[in-house]
Every structure is written in C-alpha cells, then in structure tokens.
Amino acid sequence: MEKEILLTIKNLTVKYKTDDGIAEAVNNISFQLHKGETLGLVGETGAGKTTTGLSILRLLPERTAEITEGEIIFKGENLLDIPKNEMSVIRGKQISMIFQDPMTSLNPVYTVGSQIEESIFLHNRDLTNPQIKEKADEMLELVGITPERRDDYPHQFSGGMKQRVVIAMALACDPELVIADEPTTALDVTIQAQVLRMMDELKRKYGTSMIMITHDFGVVAKTCDTVAVVYAGEIIEYGTVQDIFEDDKHHPYTTGLFHSLPNMNQDTERLQPIEGLMPDPMALPAGCKFHTRCPHCFDKCKTVLPQDIDFNGHMIKCHLYSKEV
Amino acid sequence: MTRYIIKRLLSIIPIVLGISIIIFTLLSISPGNPATLMIGREATDEQVAVLEAQLGLDQPLLTQYVNYMTDLLRGDFGTSWQTRGPVIDEIAVRFPVTLKLSVFSTLIVIFFGVTVGIISAVKQYTKLDYVVTTSSLVIASMPDFWIGLMLMLLFALKLRWVPPYGASDWTGYILPVIVLSLGIMAMVIRVTRGTMLEVIRQDYIRTARAKGADEKRVIFKHALKNALIPIITVIGNDFGSILAGAIVVETVFSLPGMGTLIVNAVKIKNIPTAMTATLFLAILYSLVVLILDIIYAYIDPRIKAEFSRRKAR
Questions:
Q1: What does the CA dihedral B298, B299, B302, B305 come to, rounded to 10 degrees?
Q2: Tens-digit pLDDT profile for residues A226-260
Q3: Domains in chain A, please, with CATH?
Q4: Nearest CA of chain B to the CA of A233: how many Å?
Q5: Which residues of B touch A110 (CB under 8 A)?
Q6: Which of A1, A93, A252, B214 is 20 to 30 A from B132 in CA distance terms?
Q7: What structural domains and CATH numbers belong to chain B?
Q8: Strand pairing class (A5-18; A21-34)
C-alpha cells in the first residue's frame, strides 16, 4: 500500500543576493516525504540544508534570499503561492521547526513557560488561560522538565534543557511536519542521545513526519527512514537508510563521507578526509559540482551535469553509473 | 534588590560632594568680586568691605565652603545674595517651569523617537527609512539655540502663532518643548532603529516567526522588549541633556526656569543660589538614573539575576 504523501518539493532553487555576487545555495532540489516518515538531509556546512528547511516555512531572510524556481507542495497546496501574512497560520500549527542553537533560539526576556504557552495560544485562540497553562505544563513534562520550572528564564537552563524547551514549543500544537535543523549539534554527546531518543519517542507517539537536517551519520542511522545527501545545493544521492548504509553503490561523495568516519569494526590508523573544500556557492564549477574533489573524475564530469540514476528508488547523481543502466 | 537601591542612594553622597566642590571652586576662583558686582560700579571700598563681611566673603575659601555645606546638612539651603530670600523659595518658583519643560520634552522624545525608530527599522532601506535617517542626522547636527531662534523667527515673529518669550500660558511652552526634544529625539530614533535592526536578526526572532507569531507580535512583543535596554539607557542619559538643554532653551525663550536662575546667579556670582540650584539638578539626575537602573531589572531577567547575586554576596 502506497503511503500518503505529505510534502513534495519540486525543483527548488534558492539564491542569495549579496554584495559580492549571487550565491547559488539550493540548486534544483526535489524530494518527497511520506506521512509519519523521517527524511534526513545530510551534508557539510554550507551545502544548503538549512536554506532548504527555511524555504519550506518561508523564513528565509527577505532582502537577500530569493526562491527563483520550484514548488513546495504541502498537503496538496503550494506553500509558495500562499500570501506572506497567511503563512503564520501554517507555521507552528502544521509545520514547525527546531533550530540548531538552543542557546540563542529562546527569547531571553520571557519565561520558558510563557514561550510555550505562546505557541499554544497562537493556534488555539478558543482556549482559556488555565487550559493553555495546563497544556504547556503537559508539554514540559513530555520533554522531561518538571512544570515547576515554567517560571524560570532561558538563562537559568542548560543547553540540553533549552533544546527540550524548543522541542516542547515545536510540538505544542501537534504539527504534521517538524523540521529539525541540527537539533543536537550544539549539545554534548550524552545529551545528544537523550534528546534524539526523546524526539524519536514523541515522533512515534504523534505520528509526526520529520525532516532531520544533520551532518552526522550517527543521527541519520538512529532517526531516519530515508536519506538525501546534499552537496553544493544538490541532492547527489537519495535512498532509504538501508540503501545508504548497506548498498555497495554510492556517489563518490557519500563514500568519502563514510571514509571520514571512525569505524569500530576496522583497525584504521588514520581517517580519510575528503580532499579539498566545498566549492564557493558564488562560483560553482560546471558539470558535476563534486568533480573538483572526486577521485574518479573523468572528462565528462567537468562539462556535463549528471542526472539521477535510479536503482529501484536509490538515486545516485553520478556519471560513473550511467554506463550501467 | 532593596539593598542595591540603598547602596545606590548612598552613592549619591560622594557625587553631590564632588559636584559641590567643583562648582564652589569654579565660582570662587572666577574673576570678579560678588560684593562689587552687587552694589555696582560706584561702590566705595567701605561699602564693599561691609557687604563682604555680611556675606562671609572675608573668610578663607575653605571656611566658606564648610559653612555652606554644614548649613546644607542642617536643612538650610542658603540665602540668595541677590534677593536676600531663601534659595529654596526661588527654586520652588522656578523648578515647575523646568519640570514641565523637561517632562513634556521627555514624553515627546520617548513617544516619537521610539515609534519612528521602530518604523524605520521595520522598513529598512525603503524611501521612508532614508528620509528618517537623513533628517534625524541633520536635526541632530543642528545646535539647539539656532533651531530655537529660527523657529521663533518663523512661528512667533512672522506667523505670530505663539508668543516669542515668557511662560504666561501654555502656548509659551510649545516652541521650547519642540526645540528641546528635536535634537534628542533624532538621537533616540537612530539608537532605536539600530538596536531594533540588531535584535530582529537574532535567532529567537526567527523562532517567534516559526511559531506562527504575526509580524506585529514579532516586532512589539519579541523584539521591542529586548531592544528596550539600550533605548532606555539613551533616554536616561538624554534626561541629563534635557536638563542641560533646558538652560539654553530657557535663555533663548526667556522662560523663568532653573536654567535662567542658574545662569543669572553665575553672572553676578550669586554663589548660594548657583550652588543649591545645581546640586538640586544633580541629585534629580542621579535619582532618574537610579530609577532607570531599577526599570532595567524589570525588563531583563538576566540583570535582575545579577542584582540578587550581588545581594547574596
């Protein structure tokens, strides 16, 4: 049985206009997300993962960023066609976002309780104050914070606790889609595990779909159903977690990423990093954007943009495989 | 918190001492003999000597200062050498004029300065923003007395809408209040705009938008409260500028306020009046700054936390 599609992104292209030129942050990204599933967007810093996430909520900086092309279809409606002031009805209610840095994503002058209450109040105007308070306390408890701390301010919380508050805020209105932008990057490893486990439990409990933006394959393995590997604003490999972790066919970039991870089962002296840096988004190379760093690069890679090659749903954007099909 | 307030109140004492020493020294070493200035050019040496003895001017400077300060502590605010009446009576008559002037100016500064600053920040890089930033820069660069004279020329002499001087009724206050607030308002606009722009870029503003807060709520609930601290600091400092500006404006418009009182007292070296009036304004300013510091704590919980930590120590 085919699962219901919640979100379809088609040919999304985002450019940032800066004083130094135009940065091509997201180039022609397309993917689908089914109800209840989690999609991982994996890639290096600056690959365009966060920009993709912010585009869905239309939260890109207004003056510099422009979505030049594409559609973001959420439950049959193109979010890019909705008037700007009507997005606030969708934000927080149907789609909500968990941000990367819990230290700065809470407003320092309001209590955590009132910030969670605000999320509830904004989308449930018919509730009375005591009802909102009760629901906020419930949310705090859900993320493992005693409701007695509702009157404390963000500066009185640790990083991990703040991220729990952010998560409570994001989940307060039972959204259908949660975009988690590196939710554990700013936290230390033990807290990371706790927060991830909690997010996973909550996701299962409410049947929430999720887009997990991360650079950490460990997080992907723990939380995702499908994975999209992003490089220089393009999805260069897409597949299920099994495809990405177990299949032996990979985009050379994905292979490189795996080589740069420590492997517990192998006795390796040194990790193998990918040589070079990600290309400057203001001056992307022609052809395959990875060819400057690719160990398998041949002439065609330098001029022709590779197309997706489909191995039963496992898509790889690389000329190496074009002969096989 | 209470302990902090008491500590801050006590810290006004050294401020007052310092200011009193500076003013007393400046007034005493400036050229001119008060006794001669009071009697006039035709004064004989004997008349001068008698008056000097009466006023205590024949005693050493230190004794004069100590006498003045001990009187002050006893609650005797001195006798004006000009009117021969208590200085406190003069202040009682003059202060309401300055108070009206500064309170109205401050209210205008807060209301228009903050509002226009916010609008300018929200509409950054639009025509409106350019008009606001340019005109506020121009206004801030013009001296008070010049704006005062120009407005007086136009509205009082040419159009005859308001009286050119004096405070016989409320219309006399219109121009002085405008002159006093314009320059400071321009500063507040620039600071408000700058702070708001900085706050709007913060992550928690993005969080507020992601929650589904509309733009009005984002600006007034989430951004403004965070931007208030620097804005209030500027307004607090500007209250000092308003008191100082009042001296200029009162002189330009011949208003019978504290400013003209001090200026006239200094002109004829009327030391008790000049001293008491200046100290009065200094204490007033210190109290305003203290009140602002307390307001900070209510706006920003992190500052309040710092107060209570100090208390615990």
A1: 0
A2: 999 999 999 999 999 999 998 888 899 998 888 88
A3: 5-94+175-321 (3.40.50.300)
A4: 22
A5: 225
A6: B214
A7: 100-312 (1.10.3720.10)
A8: antiparallel
